[in-house]
Design a protein that fits this description.
The protein has 243 residues and is an alpha/beta fold. 37% of the residues lie in helices and 25% in strands. The structure holds adenosine-5'-triphosphate. Keywords: ATP-binding, Cell membrane, Membrane, Nucleotide-binding, Translocase, Transport.
């Protein structure tokens, strides 16, 4: 369970980007973060992923407080939480399979890191992750740069799984994708929540996709969390509140 209390982010010039955002997330939830451009979605995800500094606030994960936590503890959390960006961070000249292997790098024994060898078990595991995102057939054939945007995003999800991620934070992972590819990416993320009890928090532009795929919707406006409801069709009043 993740608890955030009063997360605020204020820039050095005094501009408030996030203002006292509080929430609790349980395992298995798929949260869509919606809001107008500039409402603070990316900043919220960046702060949650500990990639951006918090000005104020408390982060508690499974009973452990991480605010101001030791560097090693924060590093551990960053390893367990995968961050998916709009443009997935893949080695484009390498195959999907090699990209997924790289997600396991830090878990490998030192001699495997040095020799770059991969055990049969690691190989099977990586193929299993690619199967979960429906990309088994593209595992070894092509460099990642030849995959479509949606496929690259799904390789990034498989890499996150290989990394041992229990939480996926995704900043508009479907931006620029055609509706079918976007749908596949979101269905994969949803399946990880329902089948493996993972947590996904995903900033989204497309409200319909959020309504259809998420289990919960957060609405941000001016850096404040103004909507927090189980996913369903939003009423006009709710839409006016956030969009
Ligand atoms: N480092 C920064 N310096 C100055 N302004 C910033 C900085 N980071 C964020 N902002 C501002 O904070 C606000 C929120 O930005 P953020 O990127 O989080 O919004 P967003 O909801 O993700 O927007 P979009 O949907 O357009 O990506 C914006 O007005 C942005 O210009």
């Amino acid at each position: 369970m993740i608890i955030v209390r009063n997360l605020s982010k204020v820039l050095t010039d005094g501009q408030t980007i996030l203002s006292k955002v509080s929430f609790q997330i349980d395992k298995g939830e798929f949260i869509a973060v919606i809001g107008a451009s500039g409402s603070g979605k990316s900043t919220l995800l960046g702060c949650l992923a500990l990639r951006q500094k918090w000005t104020e606030g408390q982060l508690i994960v499974d009973g452990t407080e991480f605010s101001g936590a030791k560097w090693a503890d924060r590093l551990k959390l960053r390893k367990e939480w995968a961050f998916l960006e709009e443009r997935p961070a893949l080695a484009l000249k390498k195959t999907a399979l090699k990209n997924v292997f790289s997600g396991r790098f830090w878990q490998l024994p030192w001699w495997r890191k040095i020799t770059g060898t991969v055990s049969t078990e690691e190989h099977i595991r990586a193929m299993d992750y690619l199967e979960r995102v429906g990309l088994l057939d593209k595992a070894k054939m092509l460099p990642a740069e030849k995959l479509s945007g949606g496929e690259q995003q799904r390789v990034a999800i498989a890499k996150g799984l290989a990394q041992g991620a229990k939480v996926i934070l995704a900043d508009e992972p479907t931006k620029g994708l055609d509706p079918e590819s976007a749908s596949k990416v979101l269905q994969d993320l949803r399946a990880l929540c329902t089948e493996q009890n993972m947590i996904v928090v995903c900033a989204m532009q497309n409200l319909e996709m959020a309504e259809r795929n998420a289990s919960r919707i957060w609405g941000l406006s001016g850096g404040k969390l103004v909507l927090d409801i189980p996913a369903r069709k939003l009423t006009q009043r709710e839409k006016d509140l956030v969009l």
